[in-house]
Amino acid sequence: MIRKLTKEEYNHAADLSYQVYMECGKSDFTQEGIETFKDFVYNTSLINALDFYGAFEHHRLIGIIGVNKEKQHISLFFILPIYHRQGIGKSLFVYMMDDCNFTHLTVNSTTYAEAFYQSLGFKKTGEKEINKGIVSIPMERNV
């Protein structure tokens, strides 16, 4: 099941994001990057600026996408690794897109997720960059 998360569930989204980031993104961050990411996902005011959608299996949160509707930007998009390559990320993305009225969408992808974003129609808009210890690739999708 996929649905929009309530503000009370945002801490679960932050925990899932951090867990998957630590498991899957090892090549994309330094110790500084870990602290930068942790500071972001556990900063209530920053997280509350996002709209979150969650994928659930048996009432357990297994994936999230967090978007800043004003900036039309994906800030967080994580699926538990045991659920990768099962269509959950694509389903979450489609659900979010159906709920939002975006004209375009941006993301700073990890190298790990670059091919996934390309499969959703995103194109690179720049080269790999490092910001506060986090490696990312700027990407954009026109709707």
UniProtKB/TrEMBL annotation:
Transmembrane segments: none
Molecular function terms, GO-annotated: acyltransferase activity, transferring groups other than amino-acyl groups
Stored Gene3D superfamilies: 3.40.630.30
Stored InterPro entries: Acyl_CoA_acyltransferase (IPR016181), GNAT_dom (IPR000182), N-acetyltrans/Recomb-assoc (IPR052564)
CDD domains: NAT_SF (cd04301)
Signal sequence bounds: none
SUPFAM superfamilies listed in its UniProt record: Acyl-CoA N-acyltransferases (Nat)
Superkingdom, natural source: Bacteria
Location of the N-acetyltransferase domain: 1-143
Record protein name field: N-acetyltransferase domain-containing protein
Organism, scientific name: Phocaeicola plebeius CAG:211
Organism taxonomic ancestry: Bacteria, Pseudomonadati, Bacteroidota, Bacteroidia, Bacteroidales
